[in-house]
């Protein structure tokens, strides 16, 4: 799903939680990166599951300028697909210039602006922007053709 604002993504998580009785939310930036890197099974790849982005993600070079169905590329060490490329993903954190100031417990960072973190790069970006370590941001009301979200269960 793309063209969804941060508020829309959060509302979906709240709706899903109410429907299922489970605790769903957007992942914090720290949780997102931990999952993208492969958690405790991490092999230290630059991208989510490989040093070769073509194996695991859709980006400017191979996407034919469109979002692709999830799962067409190789999964990362945790079995997660498309965490590098395809669409950028909203995180729960408000944008802070320095990720080093994020809460040490993995909870979402708070800020004083209307921008929120997006991670993963997308099909419109080059390979460097799809690395698991690259951070980006967008306005919370933004509904972009290359931003979606991933639901986290806690």
Please characterize this protein's 3D structure:
The protein is α+β, with helices and mostly antiparallel strands and 154 residues long. The chain has one domain (6-153): paralog of FGE (formylglycine-generating enzyme), CATH 3.90.1580. It contains 3 helices and 6 strands. Strands 4-3-2-5 form a 4-stranded mixed sheet. A two-stranded antiparallel ribbon has the order 1-6. It is globular, with a radius of gyration of 15 Å. The protein starts with 5 loop residues before the first helix and ends with a strand.
Which CATH class? Alpha Beta
Rg measurement, Å: 15 Å
**What is the 3D form?**
globular
Q: What share of residues is helical? A: 10-25%
């Amino acid at each position: 799903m793309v063209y969804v604002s941060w508020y829309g993504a959060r509302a979906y998580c709240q709706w899903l939680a109410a429907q299922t009785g489970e605790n769903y939310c957007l992942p914090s930036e720290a949780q997102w990166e931990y999952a993208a890197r492969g958690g405790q099974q991490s092999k230290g790849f630059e991208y989510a599951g490989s040093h070769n982005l073509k194996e695991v993600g859709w980006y400017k070079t191979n996407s034919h300028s469109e979002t692709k169905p999830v799962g067409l590329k190789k999964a990362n060490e945790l079995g997660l697909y498309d965490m590098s490329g395809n669409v950028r993903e909203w995180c729960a954190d408000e944008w802070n210039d320095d990720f080093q100031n994020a809460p040490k417990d993995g909870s979402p960072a708070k800020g004083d602006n209307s921008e929120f973190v997006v991670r993963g790069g997308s099909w419109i970006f080059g390979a460097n922007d799809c690395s698991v370590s690259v951070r980006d941001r967008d306005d919370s009301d933004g509904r972009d053709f290359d931003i979606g979200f991933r639901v986290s269960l806690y």
